[in-house]
C-alpha cells in the first residue's frame, strides 16, 4: 500500500515522517507526507480549481482528491488527510469532508484524520515522550490537560515547555510559533510510544493506517 498523507503545515510533516514508520512497515509499504501552508476551508464550489500556488490544504482538497481518484485507479494507494479541528464542529466537518469525497468520480480510497483540537494533542497523549525530550517540562501543566479537549492545545504545550509560556511565544508572531511547533515535532516524536498514546484522535489515525495496510496484504 502507498499512503499519500496531506498535512496542513511543516510541523505536521516532521511529526509524521518520524511516526509513520513506527505504525506501518516501511519495507512493505510506502508513504509521502505532503505539507501545505495552512488549513483554509473547503470551497463551496467543489469543482473549483483553486490557486495551487498558495498551497492551502482544504482550499485545494477538491482538486487534489479528484486527481488522486484518477491516478490511483487499479493501484493500491490511499489518501490520508490530517488536519486540526480547531474550533469547528467535528460532526459537521466530517460531513462536509465526505460530501467532498462523494463528489469525486472516481473516488479515491481516503481517510480523514482530525487532530482534536490541534496536532499538539498527539504529543500531549504521551507525556513520557514530552518529558524525555524536555526533562524540565512543567508537570502540573501537562497533567491538567484533558485528552482531545478544546482547551488551547498548542498554548498548553507552550506553557509547559517554552520560557514565558504561550503569551511570550505568541507575542513573537506566528512565524515564531510555527518554528517552535516544528522543534517540538523534531524533539518529541522520536520518543513517542504509538501503542500507548492517550489521544483518541491519534489512536484513530494509527488504527486507520494499520487497517489499510493489513487489508492490502490480505488482497
Structure, described:
- The chain has helices spanning 10-23, 57-71, 90-102, 120-124, 127-133, 139-143, 153-161, 165-171, 174-188, 200-218, and strands spanning 2-7, 30-35, 77-84, 110-115.
- The model has no long low-confidence stretch (mean pLDDT 93).
- The protein folds into two domains: 2-118 and 198-218, Rossmann fold (3-Layer(aba) Sandwich); 120-191, no CATH class.
- Helices cover 50% and strands 12% of the residues.
- It is globular and about 50 Å long.
- The termini are close together.
- Helix 1 packs parallel to helix 9 and helix 7 (153-161) crosses helix 8.
- By secondary structure, the chain is of the alpha/beta class.
- The protein has a four-stranded parallel beta sheet, sandwiched between helices.
String of helices and strands: EHEHEHEHHHHHHH
**Protein structure class:** alpha/beta
Uncertain ranges: none
Fraction of residues in H or I helices: 40-55%
Strand order of the largest sheet: 2-1-3-4
Q: How many beta-strand elements?
A: 4
Which CATH architecture of the largest domain is right? Answer: 3-Layer(aba) Sandwich
* Individual helix count: 10
The total number of structural domains is 2
Q: Please identify the top-level CATH class of the largest domain.
A: Alpha Beta
Query: Which whole number gives the mean pLDDT?
Result: 93
Largest sheet: 4 strands, parallel
Shape: globular
Roughly how many Å is the radius of gyration?
Answer: 18 Å
CATH topology category name of the largest domain:
Rossmann fold
